[in-house]
# Entry
Amino acid sequence: VQLQASGGGLVQTGGSLRLSCVASGSIFSPNVMGWYRQAPGKERELVAAIASGGITNYADSVKGRFTISKNNAKNTVYLQMNSLKPEDTGVYYCNAASPITRTTIWGQGTKVTVSS
# Structure
């Protein structure tokens, strides 16, 4: 299984982007799909996650602005990012994790740049 992330780009402060992560093949179940980001000079951090049952979790810094969702039929997870801020700049990675086996899969990153 591979994860392919897309949707990054350059946007002005206050703008929006939608990231997509498509899984080629069947993801293990149950699973937790997540979006992480890594800003220059900083460690990778969790932005948002969604479990198989639909429960979501967000970093405090993005609550109310970002929404994670998924389309199981399309094997795709989305991250809708609104009211973007310069501090949202970074490379965004999608991730699939099994809460049972601890197996994790990382997609390649997609770069998001928010200009002030």
User: Anything to note?
Assistant: The CA atoms of residues 7 and 19 lie 4 Å apart. The first strand starts at residue 2 and ends at 6.
